[in-house]
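User:
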Amino acid sequence: MISLKLQAYNTIKQKILSCEYPPNSLLNEEKLREDLQVSRTPIRDALSRLEQESLIQILPKRGVIVAGISLEEVEQIYELRMLIEPHALEKYGKTINTDVYEKLAGFFSQNPKKFTVDEIYKKDDEFHHLFINAAKNTYLTQAYRYPYTQNIRLRILSGNLGKQRIEQSQQEHGVITRYCLNKSWKKAANSLRGHLLRSKEISYSVITQLKILLHR
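Assistant: Predicted structure:
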């Protein structure tokens, strides 16, 4: 049975990642207790863990603020992703079974309108974690965890921009996967860099528009 501390942590984290608790919003500890129907101890334990993951800030006498996402942070997130992901693909892609690539190629060749946004995002996560998990390198996995967690929030915040990006992203995933099937690892890695660069540009647009809206 899952502990109350872990339950509180998972629930609050999911609400942050889904932007139900938006960036820069203030969280009230008493309200969290009411929402989750748990005592103060599990809430405080959860908040402590989330602060360590840089998803919140605990400010004395002010409360808890959900971490924002700045343009500078977008730059840092994608700088790290563009270093880690293509490297992992080029070095460890060959260790992944061909049938995995065949299934991915089948999915990415279909019209994205056949799937829900959640289904597409789930497959997107599976694709990007594929090469990281293949590395079986604990340090690499830990380095990747934070930027990809923030990427989940960026996708949610993208809204309409993200929807316009889905079809293009599906096609890019398909190209990368076909290179993997052909064992063209360098081309696959270069295509992945291009894919990440385009994703970064969309993220820049999203954060810029949010800043404009917040200051109107």
